[in-house]
């Protein structure tokens, strides 16, 4: 009997503990578990990568946005992710809660560009780098480089005269040379060919399989990366011996108080070249295309640029462009903005949630990727009526906050945006005042790799205009 009673007590106490546990659980988790955003994750592992890569990515994203709204879940490259396309969500992820969303890249890319480069980092180290990079690329930092940029633009265009060229390849050479100028100043010219050779090998491996065996593209890239770091070390050494201050990015990194290691400097220099070159070259290529398709816009830009040439002649000023001249280009500047919008060369960027985050009643689980969809934001008829139309005049009215973000926003937004706009404006000045060009072949395709680009890099032929100097405006006859 005694055995049965004790068993009874044992069971009832186990039952009681169980009950208590359930009750505690029930009351502490009174907040219902948040739902994930709508959408499908696709097949396990492969997810929806195949759909994304097998069709124009815009069609993929646009159909999702249409079906699920401005926030939805998907699954690409083996990672669950949340895609966002409203200005409010962009502000949340990139600006106000930026600390909850860290930048994220595949490990192989990180190894190739250098893991201490600015865009892979967060927190204090990132803030320090950002201050140094911004110092070199704010208007104050680049103002005195206008005439150097101009002579590089002038030389680049001259080298194209009469030839059939791939616009994108030629613009990559131009933007590479500008990047070297802003990073190394005069020293860049000395090492230009070596830097170019190494960088071109490095980039070939960037999209290759990350297999580090002798002979693979990846292995060659890693070798080129080492060689680049050695050239940077050489320049560092000679600058340290000269003890002269330099007004360029390397000079900013070398400041005594900054205490960056040589490795950190090399990673960031390779990183800045990477961020600066193909982006700006793609935008320039699109401008060639849009100007040739829109003769009235080309005409307006040409007149604006000729007016600058004329006003300098009338004042008897030197013919070289100044920073002030580049601020007298409102039409050109709207053409650049509209190109950044329509072409949206960076369709999206990546972040990763560092903890569970609640947004608008949805859960964004820790570790999930978050993709702000720049292109969809720029092509939403809510933000830009008749979005597929190339119409620079729409920028006569400033766009609403976080609806036009070709350079991103918040803590990781593009520190090179002023330089990019400057080098584009200066090239357009010489292009429109001295040259005409025609696009060769049927040109409607777009290639993505990884930046959106006209098919085949836009083959063109460039000619000097018959009359080298612009015709002055007709004088009103005085009677
Ligand atoms: C038109 C050309 C360019 C476009 C469209 C562009 C676009 C962008 C965007 C969207 C970001 C932010 C990415 C993100 O938030 O994940 C970014 C970051 C960055 N860009 Fe640019 N960029 C351009 C040219 C340049 C140039 C010329 C430079 C160098 C001088 C540069 C240097 C950088 C750097 C260093 C970052 C990383 C900033 C950080 O992580 O704090 N970019 N760029
Ligand atoms: C640009 O090149 C032309 C030759 O095509 C030369 O006459 C002119 O001085 C150059 N201008 C600048 C600013 O370098
Ligand atoms: C290339 O591959 C070999 C063999 O795996 C390796 O020892 C070498 O370090 C690699 N080179 C670089 C630069 O990573
Ligand atoms: C970036 O976000 C801030 C805060 O929301 C906003 O004021 C600003 O206009 C945004 N920048 C752009 C280019 O939209």
TrEMBL record:
The metabolic or biological pathway listed in the UniProt record of this protein is:
Plant hormone degradation; abscisic acid degradation
Q: What is its main location?
A: membrane
Q: Where is the signal peptide?
A: none
**Presence of the UniProt keyword Iron in the record:** yes
Offer a single GO CC term for the protein: membrane
Q: How does it sit in the membrane?
A: Single-pass membrane protein
This enzyme catalyses: 2-cis-(+)-abscisate + reduced [NADPH--hemoprotein reductase] + O2 = (+)-8'-hydroxyabscisate + oxidized [NADPH--hemoprotein reductase] + H2O + H(+)
Q: One Pfam family for this entry, by name? A: p450
Q: Where in the cell is it found?
A: Membrane
Q: GO: which molecular function terms?
A: (+)-abscisic acid 8'-hydroxylase activity; heme binding; iron ion binding
Which GO biological process categories is it annotated with?
A: abscisic acid metabolic process; sterol metabolic process
Record-stated family: Belongs to the cytochrome P450 family.
- The name on file for this protein is (+)-abscisic acid 8'-hydroxylase
